[in-house]
Predict the structure.
Amino acid sequence: MDNLDKKSILVTGGATGLGFSMAKRFSEKGAFVTICGRRKEKIDEAISNLKVNTIGIVADVTNEEDRDRIINQTIEHGGKIDVLINNAGNMYRGNIDELEENKLIEIFNSNVISGMLLLGKAKQYLKETEGVNIFIGSVHNRRAFPGASPYAATKGALETLTRVLAAELGKDKIRVNCVVPGAIFTEINQRAGLFDDDQAKKRLDSMAKIHALGEIGTPEDISEAVEYLINARWTTGAILDVDGGLGLGLTED
Ligand code: NAD
């Protein structure tokens, strides 16, 4: 029997990119997967490409009623919650003197606060299953990209939360871990209006040489690491870099 068999796994922002790769991998391994996202067409497309045992909910994690609905429908679908993957996230860049208050609040809401509130709601269910929460951090906390302070600040917060909440929830046998991905082609920058697909691909390809392993990653590299942390029963408060060595800050000889 597979170790994900019959686990109930919620992946926020699971219709695209890294979240979709997780939903695909875990549903193929027998888990009951629930994904959520704001765009109905993306949810429909994802569900049509996933195996059985997966449901999609059109919902915004920054909205309280939607968060209730996400938790309730995850329970209806999987009968419990074993794993919460707080994956939904957005990019916002700008120099410090150009930043807009409402956009800063928005990115902290989507990248940090909604995950905290969702974990708060899921706590009672994760306690029953001795489950795990996984945050998705970023290599932006290893490499300082000028102009990326809003995004990097949200991802730094998730690493802090991983440690504090692992300490807080350990007595309930709930584990809290964080995967820190490097550069992977998804639609996050395009959605933020920063690049088109072509520019995003070129930009990532040009970064290959600053990875110790000489290449950018794939969504599957991340879902593999998330699967490890789901099953690692004695691992909590862990922050796992999965970035091909980008975060090492490789220098020329
Ligand atoms: P993506 O844009 O494909 O996925 C993010 C998903 O989250 C999207 O489907 C988006 O619609 C959804 N989302 C955003 N706000 C939401 C909200 N309020 N409610 C519900 N859903 C919402 O990009 P991705 O790269 O797959 O991003 C997944 C996670 O990985 C993000 O947290 C991102 O910060 C992180 N990450 C990505 C990279 C990378 O190189 N791609 C690197 C490091 C970290």
